[in-house]
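Shipment paperwork, digital attachment
Item: protein structure file
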Amino acid sequence: MKKSLLTTLLLLSSFAAFADEAPTLDTGDTAWLLVSSAFVLLMLPGLALFYGGMVRAKNVLSTFLYSFTALTIVGVVWAVIGFTLAFGETESPFVGGMQYLMLGGDFMTALSGTIPLSVFAMFQGMFAIITVALISGAIVERMKFSAWVIFMVVWVIVVYSPVAHWVWASSGWLFKMGALDFAGGTVVHFSSGCAALALAIVLGNRKDFQKTAIIPHNLTQTLIGAGLLWFGWFGFNAGSALGANVLAGLAFANTMIAAAAAGVSWMLIEWTHGKPSALGVASGIVAGLVAITPAAGFVAPWGALVLGLLVGVLCCYAIRLKFKLKLDDSLDVFGIHGVGGLFGAIMTGVLAIEGKGLISGNAAQVGIQTIGVLSAGLYSFVVTLVIAYALKATIGLRVTPEQEAEGTDVNQHGEKAYN
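Attachment content:
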């Protein structure tokens, strides 16, 4: 009898200990992630304005639609299969399991840490959406809308979701290697930059690239877009702490500091060559936001300042390479997101504090960061080439020269931005 009672008490204490360790819902964390998800969604109209102001008036609506259709189509693909490929439970180092296909299984009741799995899934879905939309800046004014729609669907399934699994899922091979990517320098920015570069190569240059001046039609739109991106980026980076906590506060501060510093350094570089431009300040802000994304929760504020100042200079010069290489990356996606994402990812290994980076005694992290970001970028580049060549050989990738001269708003959508 005494032995039976003792066994029962031990079992009850074990269950109590397990219950203490089990994840519990935190309403504050949940509220912050809900708000952060909405912040990141706001980046889509911000990006549409940022890109839309830089194209010619005859292509404004089509440029906007690249971003807004990413919001709709990728939103559906993420719910159907993208989320489970990225975060479905599995032992695979390369791709997630299928229990959350169509957001099934225990999706509606499960927790991810202290927040509902449904909130985590929608927050991560916003990342997938903005990543695809970023790519569009390289191909505006000449890609067929039908080809863009198919490209988005395939790219999210075969590129974005696997790379997200590599870096952020507990079984992912880069996660196990110890690669640091707080909010997407590798997963979002360098992968989208490499995809944009591949698409631009296959698509070919606009017919008047380097022949006549291609002038932005409305830089006020671009500046407003940069401001909205900056606002949304607080959700992007601080939300990646996955809670309303000290780490979120650090990421928030670092995001502000890096963006401001990069805007200043880009402006000063332009000033040494002539006049500081509105487009330059806007581009510098975005470059700073890109570079701090992988490092936001890992570096001290002084590290964010250094990172921002350096990336503003680096990206300012990087975007000029397309003219030397005669490659039409229309809105400098690779020059800002590719170069900025690569620089930010590697510098995270240098500047990370608390024993995580070179300056705090972990020199090996620089090598891990380099392997991680280059692996993801190479995979994105090669697979994007395959998708682009397949589309080119089947339905065609770009509009005709006559349609390009007319403008993609009219011949792809039957509308004009300004009547």
